[in-house]
Amino acid sequence: MCSNPIQCFLARTMVTSCSMDEVKSLLLELFRKFDKEGAGLISIGDLTDVFKSFGLSEFDGKACELVLRKADDTGMGKVSYEKFISWIWESSIDRIPLDYRNLLPDRFEVDISKRFILDKLVLGEGGYGKVFVARDKNYENRLVAVKHVTKTGDVSRTERFYEELKLMKQLDHPNICRLLGTYEKDKDIFFVMEYCAGGEVFQRIISSGKISEEFTADIITQVAAALRYAHARSIAHRDVKPENVVFCSKDPADPSIKLIDWGLGISFAGTKMCDAVGSITYAAPEVISAKGIYAYTSTCDLWSLGVLTYVMLCGRPPFWGSQEVHLERARAEKYPMPADPWNSISGHAKDLVINLMRALPENRLSIEQVVEHPWLTAKSWPEPKPNIQESILSNMRHFCNKSTFSAICITAVASQLDHRRLKSMHQVFQKLDKNRDGVLCLEEVKHGFQEILGEDSADYKEVEVIFKSLDLDNSDKVDYTEFCAGALGQHVVAQDEACWAAFTSFDTDHTGKISKAELLRVLRNADLNKCWSNDVCEEVAHSIIGKHDEDQDGEIDFVEWMGIMRQSFDSHVMDDDGAETIKEARLWAYDLLKKIGTGSG
Known about the structure:
By secondary structure, the protein is α+β, with helices and mostly antiparallel strands. It is built from 27 helices and 15 strands.
């Protein structure tokens, strides 16, 4: 048992779920029961009794006085309980923060062949490994890309692999290839990633000679958005080239792309970049001449972006010859723009190329200027269908009713979906992301709800609560996976493939069942132990298995997991024990604890 009653309270109530309107109504009924005078007012004594009814013995008279004083703006020592509940509701009601990125499964000493069949088709090959197509053994239609690298006696090389994994976990953007999990056994490391069937931009250039200006603008817009997101997190790619930009689809009319291969990427926060890396054709002059001595900045990616644009527009590299000749011409900004095809290319396109391929990094456009460049903002993204937009926003409102464990389950599904499943959500995300920085702030979400649903809609009136619920890690921003988790609807439960992927992200040893130890690992990996003690995590895991283990074998199999998923996505689920009032009460009790500074252990 837990020593802290607040922690026990959180543990007992984490799996409940009900609507916000129901919570408000039920809370009002609860307070009426403790309104001894029937005057519609709540006093310190009444509030103490309410908390005691929840087993919150730590809320003594002094603590309740502090809480009530914050809500009472009349100085009477009493407050209308309707006003009190409104004050609670309008306060900072944060979900217990969780690090959703750590839900991605890392498997050690587990054979990848237990889960996937690796095809002989090699998608790409580099100095450190190969990338294959792989099929899920249980769902043959589920394809992934698997990068296989081998550890050697070269310690720095092995560290490079782990650095790439670390960076990919941090990068959560619709135009960056998603990492779905990892396997490590003996000397082999496997990166499991989403599969992009359309092939490399390089292949498209080879087959067609060049790419149309309009199509190029679509692609460069997405690459620039990915770089802006990465640079904002102090991550540089350092190998931007056509081989590392892949099309999501084989459809020649679909420009959707992903930026891949972060093997040369680096977090430059507090670190100098001075390695001469990448392909000489696309590497900035300062990278080529760094020689491990001279430092450069993330603007190196902007030079590479300029060269990429140049090559896509005309089908030829801007510089050639030996490394010395190449470097000399790059420093002199001497590259040909002959009449054909450049006479048919717009001034805006040429302006972007010229102002990216500046020899001095400080003279290049900033990544923010690139994203807002007239050539890239001239064309808007496809408008999602109104009914899809409304459905997604409605799903987001239901998501804010979810318990912490339900949120974990739903987010596990969202983190395993690829671009095919997320296409409509991607379109809505793009529409909301007005400044194209790859995350959503409160104002962007507000504007989207206002534009799509109107100011008089119930959803718009609850938009701040919805935003806080979507912001799982309490970063004051909604990341792409957080948005997708909120946007998923009940129809996902009908897709066994998606739920299977989430199930296997919990079942890290591939036994076909989720044990209590694996549940504990999920809770701890999500950093919930920052708010919950080990005792609480133990009690939560025990409670989940006790509630959903229908065959009483002490573990959760896939059939039982599907029951959890159906409950997680059901917006009308109530607990059988009458604890439906407690789900949101958990949130505001936790918030009130923060307000009076007692903490929750």
